[in-house]
Amino acid sequence: MILLALEILKKAGCTELKVCINNIGCEKCRPKYQDALRAYFSEHLDELCPTCRDRLERNPLRILDCKTPHCGELARNAPVITDFVCDRCRDHFDELKTLLLEAGVRFEVIPTIVRGLDYYTRTVFE
To answer: For the segment 10-31, what is each residue's pLDDT rounded down to a tens digit?
Structure first.
């Protein structure tokens, strides 16, 4: 899917492309990460914007994606998903990175790239 998106963008005339990727785990390993985020951001509750205070219980991963400068600063020091993913998700992500390198795709792993919907698993990209 990443290669297809790149091909479409290149045919549209985009030449300086870089893919940003992250591993957000699966339904088995993500809950541990969400708990770690809740614990971390709960210590900074008074510093969170109103939207992120609401996100804290519903979906703390969305706090990582907040565009408010101070929430973004807090997110930089939050736990990272790679410390919580299961072996299957870690292996899947390692394989993806290998395939991208073999295809000559420039990419960067950005731990704050998330998707707020539960049906997203493992790899997310921009």
So the answer is: 889 887 888 988 888 888 988 8
